[in-house]
Amino acid sequence: MATGQGRRVANAATVPIGARPSLADTIKGSRKLPSRLVLHGQGGIGKTCFALHAPSPYFLLSPGETGLHTLMDAGLAPEVPNLEIADWDGSLALIEELTTQEHPYKTLVIDVIDGLEKLANEHVCQSSFGGDWSEKGFMGFHRGFKVAASGPWRSFLAALDKLRAAKLMGIILLAHTGTGSFQNPTGPDYNRYAPDMYKDAWQLTYGWADIVLFANREPVVQKERGQPKGKASGALPRTLYTEWSPFADAKNRHNLPDEIDMGNSGAEAWHNFTEALKAARQGGKDGQSNG
């Protein structure tokens, strides 16, 4: 994963808002920006441990997200800079400070974005619906969620892009996984895994990200004859899924393999991911990357 080195990209020209575009503004090749990564999975699957091994991480924690502190208290993780944010404006203020101030951090890790989305929803409920969570206010026809996604959440993603361009920081967004019904246009609907967020905010995030990984540990289920349900008897190794499938949201724009073994530790998971990314980039020089 490309990460920030505290410098600006020489050929990252952008036409300012309101200015007239010109061929003179054209750059050759890409802007060499670091990847925008989302990792979602069930609690305890190893999301935080994975992100701990990113280069020089700074953790922005949503309210009540204690996994990082638990790991550090148990001696299972090194001490890393982190801050728990209590409100929506505070999260944007911190991202702005990272964008405009000098600092040694190379990766921003947000743990977790579904917790941050709740802050966005609270902000919208207070600012646009007078604090009314009822059907007459925020919850009516889910309009509050739609306002939060199209306004604050879109601004949040734009702020992350600004940070990424200004400081060349890698962005890792962690999310808890939920299950929801997929409206299948070609057959019966079915349940599948996706981040535990309102669909509009998640679809914006999914489209924004360069890489979406789904971490899972598939159970080994044995079913006895005549029994309606099976019994889980063990678990397969932890796996990172990199492509959309009928059971989970994932994607990548780097020709990654469909599955990456997470191994037995966060360090091993990060190593296997970055090695797969290097191999994909080397192999992709003569081919095409995924859209």
Describe the fold and architecture.
- The protein is an alpha/beta fold and 291 residues long.
- The protein has a single domain, classed as Rossmann fold (3-Layer(aba) Sandwich), CATH 3.40.50.
- The protein contains seven helices and twelve strands.
What attributes characterize this protein structure?
291 residues; alpha/beta; Rossmann fold; 21% strand; disordered C terminus
Which fold name is given in CATH as the topology? Rossmann fold
Q: Note the gap between the termini.
A: 17 Å
**What would CATH call the homologous superfamily?**
P-loop containing nucleotide triphosphate hydrolases
Q: Helical region count?
A: 7
Q: What global shape is seen?
A: globular
Portion of residues in beta strands equals 15-25%
What percent of residues adopt helix (DSSP H or I)? Answer: 25-40%
Instruction: Report low-confidence residues grouped into runs of 5 or more.
Output: 2-12, 285-291
| Count of distinct structural domains | 1
Number of strands: 12
Question: Can you tell me the CATH architecture?
Answer: 3-Layer(aba) Sandwich
**Structural Rg:** 20 Å
Strand count, sense and closure of the main sheet? 10 strands, mixed
Give the H and E element order.
EHEHEHEHHEEHEEEEEEH
CATH class: Alpha Beta
Whole-number mean pLDDT: 88
